Amino acid sequence: MFNEQNTIEVRDRILSNARELFVKNGYNGTSIRDIATASDTNVAMINYYFGSKYNLFGQIFEEAFNFLAEKIFLTLTSDRPFFELMDIWIESYYEILSEYPQIPNFLLNEVNMNPERLVQMLKEKDPYRIYTTIKKRIRNEVENGVIKETSPDYFLLSVLSLGVFPFIFTNIATAILDISQEEYINMLQEHKKYISEFIKNALKP
Amino acid sequence: MFNEQNTIEVRDRILSNARELFVKNGYNGTSIRDIATASDTNVAMINYYFGSKYNLFGQIFEEAFNFLAEKIFLTLTSDRPFFELMDIWIESYYEILSEYPQIPNFLLNEVNMNPERLVQMLKEKDPYRIYTTIKKRIRNEVENGVIKETSPDYFLLSVLSLGVFPFIFTNIATAILDISQEEYINMLQEHKKYISEFIKNALKP
DNA sequence: GTCTATAGCGGGATAGAC
DNA sequence: GTCTATCCCGCTATAGAC
User: Fold this and answer.
1) What is the pTM of this model?
2) Taking 90 as the threshold, does the pLDDT of residue B121 lie above it?
3) Cα first-last separation, chain A
């Protein structure tokens, strides 16, 4: 009772420091000792609150995934005009990923390690409904002459590529161009407009 | 003298098994014990020939990087017609990455772990010369009216995105679509043609 | 609810016999 | 050159004192 406030505080402190470390160094690159030290507590507490390192990670992973997925899923099923929808889609990536540029690498890394976890989480979110919705939408737009004949699957993969890859590429790009991460993210603000145009031109009937 | 043949054989056996394991499981996911077992030898031999796990990994990383970079660099500086050059560029990714779909993830993972290594390797290859060449080429094509006004940097990043991301996405895509890796790679053969068209349409004056 | 102390495992590296 | 045996380290997890 008296301790409750403090208890929650410790748990949250672990959670937020673990998030930071996992995102920065990945699962294998982060030890629970690191997390304990950063949270100003000890290994036993982490296992007390979360059962295991794997479990703690699971919570943070899910959080990151939902954060990215939610907005995208919402956008893709809205009934705005098609090209506007494309813009908002791209815009969404930049809004989210500009603030958390580590997310794609984080997700990709850990999905490669443990694909089953993602499948499980996707199943819960029923992404097939959304997938079907946007595919139908594309087919409609083709029929109405808004965009040229195109394969929905390949089109979706292309937009995903253009929207996400620049962020995955951050570390390499900043190393090659010898610029700071901030400068690169700023550059991407312009790139965003570029790919919106790029996609529109590619699809104009 | 008598052993030389055999010596080289052991060394090569370690190298090729290590490559396979590193590519499949990453640096942290691979122990020198795993490598020793797979190579039908022992840990002491690995340290005898390569000094350390880190050193062994370094050799393999450099090999993978050169393999991918060589062909791309060659393509980008050839004097073929522009759209043909784009096709060959995309084609190159698919040729190489269809056979070794793990390379992008492998590179990205390890670049995130140790950016300095990549910078060092890039410096040795003088990519700025190639970067300058292709940028000049794009500007020329714009002037000659072959393609519409476009930013070379953003254009290069877009083509890179379209060419590489589908391979990075392999594990997630196969998990979501519930198909085998082979089926997905086959799908990408069609996607390749799609993005060639996509790029051409986006750049048509 | 908190923390110390330690068990138990798997990692990389190496000394030294052959 | 080869291999066994072993060192030493850092990790996760947990038992048990407070």
Assistant:
1) 0.85
2) no
3) 67
